[in-house]
Design goal:
Elements lengths: L8 E2 L2 E7 L2 E6 L3 E3 L2 E4 L5 E4 L4 E7 L1 H17 L4 H14 L8 E6 L4 E5 L4 E2 L5 E5 L2 H14 L4 H15 L8 E4 L1
Antiparallel strand pairs: 1-4, 2-3, 2-11, 3-12, 4-5, 6-7, 7-8, 8-9, 9-10
Helix pairs in contact: 1-2, 3-4
Enzyme class: hydrolase
Protein name: ATP-dependent protease subunit HslV
InterPro entries: ATP-dep_Prtase_HsIV_su, Ntn_hydrolases_N, Proteasome_sua/b, Proteasome_suB-type
Length: 182
Amino acid sequence: MGQESKPLIRSTTVLGVIRDGKAALGSDGQMTLGNTVLKHSTRKIRSLYHGRIITGFAGATADAVTLLDRFEEKLDAYGGKLERAAVELARDWRTDKYLRRLEAMLAVVSQDKALIISGTGDVIEPEDSIVAIGSGSMYALAAARSLLKHTPLSAREIVSESLKIAADICIYTNDHIVIEEL
C-alpha cells in the first residue's frame, strides 16, 4: 500500500535460429503498456558489426537501445568477437550503477553462435542454436524446436512460422513480423 506501481510493459517476442550455417532473427511489432496496445509495428531487431551480427531486444525500449549501443561498442572494441563482447557487456551491465537499472534482454545471433544476454550477468548459449526472449518466447521456442527437429525448413522459415504461432497464442505478440538473415 502507498507504493506507486509502474505499468507492466510487455511488448515483444524475439526469436533467433541457426540452421545449416544460416542465421535468422525476427520479432513481432507489438508494444503494449498494461492492457493497451500502443503500437503495432515497433522494430526490435537490428544488424550490428558490419552486418555480421543481428540482435533483438525485449523490455523497455530506451533501456534496450542503450544496451544495443553499448554492445556495438564492445563488438568494435573486441574485433567482432561475439562471445567476448557479450561477456564484457554482461559484466558492465551487472556492475555499473547506471546500467544495472536497465530493464531489457538481448538475443544475439551470428552465423555460428546464438546468445541470450541478461542484466543479471548471464550470457547463455543454448544447445540447440535457438534463442527466444520476451512475452511470447516460450511459445515461439517450442514451435521452433519442433520445426527444427521435424522439418527441412530454413532458419528464416522457422523463425517466421514460430513467430506466427506465438502471435496466435500470446496476447502481447502480433503478426507484424520483421526478420533479418545472415
